[in-house]
Amino acid sequence: xxxxxxxxxxxxxxxxxxxxxxxxxxxxxxxxxxxxxxxxxxxxxxxxxxxxxxxxxxxxxxxxxxxxxxxxxxxxxxxxxxxxxxxxxxxxxxxxxxxxxxxxxxxxxxxxxxxxxxxxxxxxxxxxxxxxxxxxxxxxxxxxxxxxxxxxxxxxxxxxxxxxxxxxxxxx
Length: 172
Known about the structure:
By secondary structure, the protein is α/β, with parallel strands linked by helices. The chain has helices at residues 2-16, 28-38, 64-73, 84-92, 121-132; strands at residues 24-25, 42-47, 75-80, 100-104, 111-116, 141-143, 159-160.
């Protein structure tokens, strides 16, 4: 009896100390509420299919560092464009088809980062680390500068005016 109890306790310990995986939310409105309650930014992944969040990386799989950061720091939302509600939300996010990513600030009111297309894993990790900082004040929506044409005027082209997160409250 004692041995069985000890084994069950150790098994629970081993499970809890393994690498963390993010919880994926399909309901954007509920995720916004949860993000506000926990003071965590949203990471909204747009893709298609059962595990379409993996489409954001050029490797086709979120690596361990990315999944642990997402699990620890973000409220993760998956918008499946294979579903009608997902198509609608993706359109509201200005990512009519995936892959794509929108990251909010810690208040959930503003878009801190927007990207349509895939990213190298190291780039994705860099962006996610940047916006995981709870002290970071978001003044503009950043987009991936390496994939946009350079502006020849005085302002950098990779910044857009701040955009509010859409008020979509349905589920995907």
